Amino acid sequence: MITAAQMRAARALAGIDQRTLAERAGVSLPTIQRMEASEGVVRGVVDTLMKVIHALDEVGVELIGENQTSERGGRGVRLKATVAQNPQG
Q1: Residue 59: which pLDDT band, with cuts at 50, 70 and 90?
Q2: Do 55 and 63 meet the contact criterion of CB atoms below 8 Å apart?
Q3: For the whole model, what pTM was predicted?
Q4: Rounded Cα–Cα distance for residues 22 and 64 (Å)
Q5: DSSP 59
Q6: What is the Cα 28 distance to its own chain's centre?
């Protein structure tokens, strides 16, 4: 699924604001705001999540899941998995 951080980053890459994403996805602005304010994986009605993912896909954003490869190519960013720091160094 999609995380709140992915959703915010996807919007930034596409150059759209929350209102535009809401309109493109056919959901309310408060729904987008609530999704993006959540911690970790976005929870909600599956149909709503799929509408948001589809809207992001339509503006050219590919969401890449954990340990998944990108098949389309193109430019983008990916958050590195956090590595536990060695306490000694």
Answers
A1: very high
A2: no
A3: 0.80
A4: 21
A5: T
A6: 17
